[in-house]
Amino acid sequence: MFGLEKPAGQRESGRSGGLPKMASVGDFNVLSSSIPATKVELSVSCRNLLDRDTFSKSDPICVLYTQAIGNKEWREFGRTEVIDNTLNPDFVRKFIMDYFFEERENLRFDFYDVDSKSPNLSKHDFLGQMFCTLGEIVGSQGSRLEKPIVGIPGKKCGTVIVTAEELGCCRDSVLMQFCANKLDKKDFFGKSDPFLVFHRSNEDGSFTICHKTEVVKNTLNPVWQAFKISVRALCNGDYDRTIKVEVYDWDRDGSHDFIGEFTTSYRELSRGQSQFNVYEVINPKKKGKKKKYVNSGTVTLLSFLIETEVSFLDYIKGGTQINFTVAIDFTASNGNPSQPTSLHYMNPYQLNAYGMALRAVGEIIQDYDSDKMFPALGFGARLPPDGRVSHEFALNGNPQNPYCHGIDGVMEAYYRSLKSVQLYGPTNFAPVINHVARYAASVKDGSQYFVLLIITDGVISDMAQTKESIVNASKLPMSIIIVGVGPAEFDAMEELDGDVVRISSRGRFAERDIVQFVPFRDYIDRSGNHVLSMARLAKDVLAEIPEQFLSYMRVRGIKPSPAPPPYTPPIHVLQTQI
Fold first, then answer.
1. Going from the N-terminus, what domains does the chain have, and what CATH number goes with each?
2. Which residues belong to any copy of the C2 domain (predicted)?
């Protein structure tokens, strides 16, 4: 599993003194059910830090904290090395973190001027801090975030630059082929039926099976088919870790005869076909008994090809923007917004279900949208002044420019609309889906991807038209999230979420699954902890987006744009501040 490799951060560097070495970052948590989409490495640099030393410059260290979802408690994640006598440190020690698109990972970077060898941070001078999310770093141009350091009133504390780099070994696969010569004969009447079993070694010296080849019948000189295996499965990304290969003779009754074994490593195999990759197959028992024993045959590597899978982060780093649109159900079945029983009730003390769903999803997606301007639409209401029914109106009242600034702007427009429109009906989805589809159809080059969040209380009125719209939209760079609020039966929604049966309209099937539906009631935390409810909801509705995004890019043959060149921070020669 993950977390076995030593993070880059565990190298010795700088004046570590009594300060603890890098925390064992990204340690695999057995209780965690989700496997990280990938790992990212964070590099930290600062410019123009405060100078707290009288006769020399500060000796900075960076301490990273992460925040638990439920109780908001900050926990120390790790520390960089200390760099002596500089206000412009480029820290060598990295932070390696698990990255999930669908989770909001709050981060806090604290900076201190280290004055002694004490690991206790209160003994050192505080230089300021920076708050952000992991999504904010990854979603910034070139996955490079620059922000001011804050925390000391009245002082300019400088800036921090954090860069995220996806770890390559997470997504490399290798295509390998082997053959063998002069293997020991194990069968009484015929030759052997050989196959290979590959094991990776674990930190405690034990071995875990990671691949079996097919059986080649009745030969002592087999050629096995080429096979593909991820580098993570083969050696957990550690190129020097031992890989043990056993050779067996297959028997129908399952009591396969051991022919022999050899060991190698990813680094050795990566040399490809050469004299280094011809291995003697040794049977330790035979070797111990027979003085003249040489080997039980040889296994030769015929080919070794590395393939890198492109990932969601490659596109984000290359500049693909995720555009977020929200559509809110203003039909009368929601109840009168001035009544506490209404799903649209404007409680001054807490968010209603619409507000919670909107914030939960929007706060994560906004990190991947550089201008933070979101179109916000409503459907199923009568609009002033003439009371006409609309299934596609701008919440901010401006049909020419339905954009709201940030999730706060969307919330504000939503509350304003509740005061001005009359809840009506019916519940039609097709108009808002077609609205977003028109935009998505105009940019099919992979530079933009559209996510529509529909929040609704109920039974859909235009099922046939909605299915038609979804089938058409499945060819476009877009995904649809539907959150059902309230107590209604949502059977029809399950049909739109093509997880079980791919959605179709008039005999045409959707090109790919683009709809994810969840009922909000499944996420209401019994203890009333809304933060937890929102985190769980976001996790479930957003988890499918990266794969839906990649399926569009793959079908269209769109490769990620190259990332901007790596940033080399300028070093300013600064006068020491007195």
1. 38-166 (2.60.40.150), 172-308 (2.60.40.150), 320-367+425-556 (no CATH)
2. 20-147, 156-279
